[in-house]
Design a protein that fits this description.
heterotrimer; A alpha/beta; B alpha+beta; C alpha+beta; B: alpha+beta; Histone, subunit A; two-stranded antiparallel ribbon; 3 helices; C: alpha+beta; Arc Repressor Mutant, subunit A; 3 domains; nine-stranded mixed beta sheet; three-stranded antiparallel beta sheet; elongated
């Protein structure tokens, strides 16, 4: 059951082969059986069954849509009315959100059954899921390795077939990189395509929510229900949402694929490079035109990103002051003490480090040298992309320079950790959509390719990925120990 | 690029984070390293480049002036650490 | 001995009279139970986002046009970062580098009639903070966030004022404009209109500036005047003692009438402004600006000029009336319904009526004597039915609700005596009763004439037409 696609699950529900309650119980059971992954912060057994019953009723009354009764998990960054929403932080350990994020609301209306809230790097700051107050998530392919981050819990849960679909957010690669490291499909939409309302902000001009699933087709179903204009988000795009699932079958003949030099330089593991070469060969075989391109400012994307993201986060996280919600220190002796201790106790090391960097970058005398300069670099990077998209339809390269690294391997050196985001970060700076698709294995760990498209071309990205997945079965690989029959059901 | 202990303390004050002396030294080292790395941005001349604050070239949408929110104080204050008489409480502030 | 000159600039915060807040759909109404009008966005709950109120933008543009300013086609919201309990997000959404209104000007009329131009650097849109209540609890400060997110324009003047008096004139003019435009109720008790004053002094004639202090949160014209005067005196004393002025924020204490250094703001602030990534640039197309221009009401200075030409008022009277839209409307309505001279109308409005309003602490819109009633009263003076003196009694009766002027005059028999023969009878009686004074007058003591007039008026209970009394007395005493 856990290996079925969304459309197969929907068909099964539709034909009465199983009920949503049965489906829900099945996945809840898998979640409980695989607690060792630490993929979930909050499991929602009771409310899930209630939602599943309601879904079954709707299906019986033929009032259902394509996602009615399908189980799903939300990254614990999305506020959910009446449910703890921790954002992976001690600061919000006890925070029961009093309202629904737009994404939560929309998927609720679509009839999805929420099984739980997934683990993540604290406030989405991290590339390994080691920065969670609730402990690291383990990669289902090898528990000694990280699942990637910050949507590590969502990626691991989907990869381990604990849930068919999960939401994530991507500020510098936080959907694509864990998707690649866990061997699943993850899409970061165009900035503004999915509402940010109710999604706890890390870096507002970079954050974007998107789907994680086993396949591009499943991502298409999930994105369909997530995307769209929201009047509560000033940065939400008022553009029609195309029918993603209907665009999947287009032939790829004649599509021009740009291969950036800069994504294949030093730092890329040779084995990953070989896997990329095979994917490029496949595309060529489909009649795509392969064209080398340049994205000359790629290297500067990471420092620019860390200035912009930390500056925005230093301000976004000021609201956590121990007054209206969140952690408050015991017996503050005065207001200053209340602020300092509540925040120091509530935030973890990496979050504090980024707040410090961002505060410094915005402070008097440094603004021009750091923040303004980073915004100028951002413009250069964006221009690089728009030039490239004058001649190509897609840009293809690796999602990450290497497969999942070992837990603890990079925690001592923040800069090395930051460098693991080199291929994903510029996409956020430009606000473009990109998808990560599993395309090979190295030493038992998955490798992902990233396909970047021009603004609002999610349909084309999904189309390409779907065609690739029709021809390959990397996305069907299930981590050993999580395949059917391996769990006592 | 080197950040002094004093600068670290000033930043931690602005950010309302408690930093003891040992942590301050660690931050000074960490931040110096990160900021030195960040300075590779200076390789490019950006004098003519218009800063980009936002990924999309769109303008602010304006909302109609209508009250649609209702009182949810009770709900909002159940998650507040300390309230009384409908007010959020903080240690006494002397102006 | 150095002669010192004050240099004053004002930052006036004007709450805009929108229904909902600047970035949320919560109500801006004053006086609700604490925190009942603070929605998720106002509280800065995790994940919430701001969406800009169109009406706040329109009002800021109206203000900009009223002060001859440039309306920015492209303006940007920025975050001003600092921690304070009444600032829920840890930053205030304001405007920094690109405000919506820039380069405005305003003329004020000094006591000697000289016009002075005060430059207005900018006016930017921002959100108000909540309120900290320090008195409610012994050990705690209570925070009410109902006000958080109320739209404000902050109007920043050039340091163009040289005395507390000039500052008040400028502030009153801004107050009058925002009320004319209907963009603020200007209620100072409720904090809808408040002011920070930047004050420094320098030797008269110097071009440079001295170190300035900022006096925060002044919410009445009187406080502004007293605080500035106190601060000028304080700074003068410090400098003359050979001391130095510390650049600092000060608070005005309305009990002692003094300013004192503000402890909580001691540290130098570094607000780390940067463009708010949750909001996009605000673009105001020229046609929107023109449409708003077309809807602007007649402004105080235009109205004053028109009053001078149309009613022949002098500049001072015209300006006084034009200060408030309601006062000006009252005047015009009265003037239209009476044959009395405009000057008489002004005197009654600024005299009897204003005094009565002040005494009862009510606004002109609540006056028990309507403009129609006042016009009726003035008509009776004009046609000689009653004298000005009697009219004051009638006015007081109208004020207490005894009816209109005609009703009161009739019921109390106050109609003026204009019949020559009746007045002659009174005059004869007075002359007959006071032979001694008649003798004095005839021997050249002119002053006694007033005595006779008084006696005749008294005898008539004030109803005799004074002009006729005068004429008849002169004739009889010849």
């Amino acid at each position: 059951m856990e290996n079925l696609s969304v459309s197969q699950l929907a068909a099964g529900l539709d034909h009465g082969e199983f009920s949503s309650v049965e489906l829900t119980r099945h996945f809840l059971h898998r979640m409980q059986a695989h607690g060792e992954l630490n993929a979930f912060i909050t499991e929602m057994d009771e409310s899930a069954i209630v939602q599943a019953r309601r879904a079954d009723q709707l299906i019986k009354e033929k009032k259902h849509g394509p996602l009615t009764g399908i189980p799903l998990a939300h990254k614990d960054i999305f506020c959910m009315d009446g449910t703890r929403t921790s954002c992976g932080s001690r600061m919000l350990d006890q925070f029961v959100a009093p309202y629904d994020a737009t994404v939560v609301q929309k998927l609720g209306q679509a009839g999805c059954v929420v099984l739980g809230k997934t683990n993540m790097d604290e406030f989405a700051m991290g590339s390994s899921n080691e920065n969670s107050y609730f402990g690291p998530v383990k990669n289902p392919w090898n528990p000694g390795h990280v699942p990637g981050g910050s949507s590590g819990g969502s990626a691991a849960a989907v990869a381990a077939r604990l849930v068919p679909l999960a939401t994530g957010t991507d500020t510098g690669g936080s959907i694509r990189q864990p998707a690649a490291l866990c061997g699943i499909t993850g899409l970061k939409p165009t900035y503004g395509r999915v509402s940010r309302y109710g999604m706890i902000a890390y870096a507002s001009s970079l954050d974007q929510a998107g789907p994680l699933a086993k396949s591009a087709q499943d991502c298409a179903y999930l994105l369909q229900a997530m995307a769209g204009f929201d009047s509560r988000d000033s940065t939400s795009m008022d553009e029609p949402v195309p029918a993603y699932t209907q665009a999947l079958d287009q032939p790829l003949q004649g599509r021009v694929i740009g291969i950036p030099d800069e994504y294949f330089g030093a730092g890329l593991k040779p084995e990953v490079q070989d896997i990329m070469a095979q994917a490029i060969d496949w595309a060529e075989g489909q009649g795509c035109i392969i064209q080398p391109i340049r994205l000359p400012n790629t290297e500067l994307a990471i420092p620019a990103y860390y200035v912009i993201a930390t500056a925005e986060c230093s301000s976004n996280l000021s609201r956590f002051d121990g007054i209206r919600f969140g952690h408050r220190c015991k017996a503050p002796k005065d207001l200053h003490d209340l602020y300092r201790r509540s925040r120091s106790e509530g935030f973890g090391t990496e979050v504090k480090r980024r707040i410090m960097i961002g505060t410094y970058a915005l402070s008097a005398g440094y603004y021009d040298a750091y923040y303004l300069k980073a915004q100028q670099i951002r413009r250069l990077i964006s221009t690089d992309f728009s030039k490239a998209f004058e001649t190509v339809d897609f840009i293809l390269g690796p999602t990450a320079p290497e497969p999942a690294f070992r837990i603890g391997e990079k925690t001592d050196d923040p800069v090395t950790m930051y460098l693991s985001d080199i291929y994903t970060i510029s996409v956020n700076l430009a606000g473009l959509p990109a998808i990560s698709v599993p395309c090979g294995m190295h030493e038992g760990l998955p490798v992902g390719m990233q396909l970047i498209g021009n603004y609002l071309t999610e349909d084309r990205l999904l189309n390409f990925a779907h065609q690739y997945q029709l021809a390959t079965d990397w996305h069907r690989q299930c981590p050993p120990g999580f395949a059917q029959g391996s769990v006592d059901e | 690029m080197s950040i002094s202990l004093e600068e670290v303390l000033n930043i931690s004050h602005l950010a309302r984070l408690h930093v003891d002396e040992e942590q301050a030294r660690q931050y000074a080292a960490d931040l110096s390293k990160i900021l030195a790395w960040v300075q590779q941005m200076n390789q490019v001349d950006t004098r003519e480049v218009v800063p980009m604050a936002h990924p999309l070239d769109v303008v602010q949408r304006l909302r109609e002036d209508k009250v649609t929110e209702t009182d949810q104080r009770e709900k909002f204050q159940t998650i507040a650490p300390r309230t009384d008489k409908g007010l959020y409480l903080v240690p006494k502030v002397i102006e | 001995m150095i002669r010192w000159e004050a240099v004053i600039g004002l930052e006036i915060h004007v709450q805009l009279a929108t229904q909902s807040k600047i970035f949320s759909a919560a109500s801006t109404a004053f006086g609700a139970e604490p925190n009942t009008q603070a929605c998720a966005v106002d509280l800065g709950l995790p994940g919430v986002l701001p969406v800009l109120n169109l009406e706040a933008v329109r009002m800021a543009v109206m203000f900009g046009l009223a002060i001859d300013a440039t309306i920015a086609q492209h303006s940007v919201f920025a975050r001003k970062n600092y921690f304070y309990p009444d600032l829920p997000k840890g930053y205030q959404i304001s405007q920094y580098e690109l405000p919506i209104v820039e380069h405005g000007r305003l003329e004020i009329t000094l006591d000697d009639g000289v016009q002075k131009v005060i430059g207005i650097t900018r006016a930017h849109l921002e959100e108000d903070a909540g309120k900290s209540l320090h008195e409610e609890f012994d050990e705690f400060t209570g925070v009410d966030l109902n006000r958080a997110g109320t739209p404000l324009i902050e109007v920043v003047s050039e340091p163009d004022m040289r005395s507390a008096k000039e500052a008040i004139l400028y502030m009153k003019k801004i107050h009058s404009i925002v009320r004319y435009l209907g963009i603020s109720d200007g209620n100072m008790q409720e904090g809808s209109f408040r002011c920070d004053a930047n004050v420094s002094i320098r030797p008269a004639g110097d071009a440079g500036y001295g170190t300035r202090t900022e006096i925060k949160n002044l919410n009445s014209f009187r406080f502004v005047e007293r605080a500035i005067d106190f601060e000028i005196g304080r700074q003068t004393a410090v400098l003359e003692d050979g001391g130095e002025i510390a650049q600092e924020t000060r608070l005005y204490d309305d009990v002692t009438g003094e300013t004192r250094s503000m402890r909580s703001k001691e540290e130098a602030n570094d607000y780390r402004y940067f463009p708010d990534p949750d909001l996009l640039p605000v673009v105001i197309p020229q046609d929107m600006v023109e449409a708003i221009r077309g809807q602007l009401p007649e402004l105080p200075s235009e109205k004053a000029t028109r009053f001078c030409t149309q009613y022949g008022l002098d500049a001072h009277d015209a300006e006084t009336l034009a200060t408030s839209r309601e006062l000006a409307e009252y005047f015009e309505h009265t003037a239209r319904h009476t044959d009395a001279k405009a000057k008489l109308v002004v005197n009654w409005i600024t005299g009897e009526l204003s005094a009565a309003l002040n005494q009862d602490h009510i606004e002109i819109t609540e006056s028990p004597v309507s403009s129609t009633m006042l016009a009726g009263l003035l008509n009776r003076i004009e046609d000689g039915t009653i004298s000005g003196k009697i009219a004051k009694d009638v006015f007081r009766s109208m004020w207490t609700g005894e009816g209109d002027a005609d009703t009161i005059i009739e019921s109390r028999g106050l109609r003026q005596i204009t019949d020559d023969s009746e007045i002659e009878r009174l005059v004869d009686q007075v002359l007959q009763d006071n032979p001694e004074q008649v003798e004095q007058f005839r021997s050249g003591k002119d002053k006694v004439f007033g005595f006779f007039v008084g006696r005749v008026m008294k005898l008539s209970q004030g109803k005799a037409n004074p002009k006729q009394v005068n004429g008849l007395l002169r004739k009889k005493l010849k």
